[in-house]
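Hey,
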Amino acid sequence: MRFVFAIVALVLSVVMIVLGFAQRTVFLEPASTSLSASIPDGAPYAVIDASALAAHAGPQTLTISGGSPVFMAYGRSEDVRAWVDGSTYSDVSLKKDGTALKAKIHTAPAPETPSSTSSPSTPSPSSPPAIGTPDATAALPTNPAGSDLWLEEFSAQQHLTRTINVPAGISVIVASDGTKPAPTRVSVEWPTNNATPWAGPLIVGGAVLALIGLALYLWALLHLRRSQGPRRNLPRGPRMPKLPRAPRPKAIKASEITGPRRSMIAIVPVLLVSGLVLTGCSPDFWPSSSGAVTPTASPTLDATAAPDAAADIPLPAVTVPQLEQIVHRIAAVATEADTSLSSDAIATRFTGPALEQRLINYKIRAVKADVAPVQAIPDSTFALTLPQQSPGWPRMVMTVVEGTNPKEAPTALVLTQQSPRANYLVEYAIQLVPAAPVPDVAPAAIGAPIIKPDVKLLVLPPDKIAAAYGDVLQKGEASEYSDLFEVKGDTFRAQVQASKDQTAAELPSTAAIEYSVAPGSGQPLALATNDSGGIVAVNLNEIATVRPVDAGATVSSNPDSASAALSGVASSAKGLQSTYSDQLLFHVPAAGSGEKIVLLGFAQGLIASVELP
C-alpha cells in the first residue's frame, strides 16, 4: 500500500502542476479586448464618442493610423462637438448591441447665400474696430492642434498609440492637420481580467505533493528491504563439514538502494523552485478579494468632477490643469513678444486693455530702449482659479498667478474665449495690491456664474464702477461716490494723487494742466463670489492735458519721458495730451450688505500722447 500511496501522490502532483501551467498557457484568456472602426475617407476630422470609450471598463488604449501626420486630443464631449460643429466630420460611436463601433459622416451645412436685396454692412475706414473686438470675418483655425479646449493632446507622423484613462463625458478628436483627410483606422483596446487565481496554488500544491509522494516511495523501499530478513529459526540437521569461508559481501546502504533514482529527487525541487518563481511575483496567479480592473483617474481630469451637490449646475469653463497649460502657453508667448517687441505675436494671446497697453509699450521701447517693459506674465503658482460656469460661449476665467520672486506682486489674469475654435485671450493683467483681501470664491471644480454688467444686486452695477471710481480719483472725498469705496489699502488712489502733486510742482507758470477721465476700451467683466458679491475687472482712461496760458508760450515734455518718445513732439504752442489706461480689479459686495467696494489690484500704462489740434 505504501507504493500505491506514493504512486497516487506523484500522479496527482503531475496532474496539478500540468493544470496549473495550462491555465497560464493553453487556457489563458486574452489580456485585453478591442473594438475597431474604419473612418470614411474624406472628412478632415473624426470624433470618437464617449460611448465608444466607455464600452468597457478600464483605461483605453487608442491606436490610430492611416494618415500623416496623426493628431489626437481628448476633451469634454460638449467642447469637442462644439469645435467640429459646422465642419464635415466622422462620428465614431458604439453600436446599440455594444459589440462593435460604427462610423457615420456628418456633412457641413451649406453656407447661406446672402439675399440680393440686402447688402452686408461695411465698417467705416475712419472708425476701426476697438482693440480686442473679435473680427467676425476672420477665418477660423482648421488645425485642432494647440486648442485650449483639449485636456491633453498627442501627435505622431503615421501611427499613434496612446493609453488614456478618461471618465464618462469625454470624447476624442482625431485629425491630420485639418486640411488633409483624417486617419482612416481607429482601434480602442481595454484591459481584461485574465487572472488565473488557482494556477499558483495548483503548481505549488503539486510540487509539495510530489515531495510527499517521493518521501512515501523512499519509505516503502526501506520497509521492503527490512522485510526481506530471516523470519524464524530452522531445525538443525546433520552437521556438515566446514567449507572455506567465502568473502563477506559489503553491506548495502539505503542511499545505494535509491541511487539510480536521484534524477527524480532533483526534478521535484526544480519544479518547486520554478513554480515559486513563476507564481510568487504575480498577483494574477493567486486568489484575491477583487479581480476587477481598477482604473486610475488621469491627472488632467482630477478637477472635472464636481461635488454631488453641484451636479445640476453647468460645468466650469476649464479645469485647473487645463488652465495651467493655457497660462503656460500665454506666458511663453508674452515673454517672446516682450523681448522681440512683436505686435503680431502678442495679439495672438492678448486683447482689450491688456493688449493695448503692451502694443504701446512696444512702440515706445522701439524708440527709447531704456523704458521699462510691461510686467511679465508668471506661470509658476496658481493662488486662485475661478472659471465661469458656462455651457456655451463666450467664456471667462479669472486666476491669480504668483511668480518665483516673492517680492513681486501676484498677477490677476482675466481670460476670455469668444468661440470654441478661438483660444483664451488675456483681457486684463493686473497686479494685486499688497495684502489684497481676496474674497472667498467657489472651488475651481464648481466655478462661478457670470454677473451681467447692468445687474443691480451689487453696491454698484459693474458697468458703473469705472465711472464712479474715476470720479473719486478726480474729486477725492468731494465725490458723491467717495463713501462707496474703501480708502484703507487703496494704494493706487494715493499713487495718482502723489503724481498729480509732483506734476503741479514741476509745471511752469506759463502752462496749466487739466485732468479728466473716460471709459476705456475694456468691457466690465465680473464673476460671483461666495458672499453674493462679485470680483469685477474694469478699464478706465485718465487723460492729462497741458496747455500754455500765455500768448506765444509753449509747453514741452521731458525729452527722456515715454510721452515724448510716443508723441515725437518736443514742444508745442497748442498743448500736449497724454492718456493712461487703468486696469482695475475690485471686490464689489452685495447691495444692502453695508460693506464698501475694495480695490484688489491695478495696472497703469501710457497708451496715447499727442499734440492738441
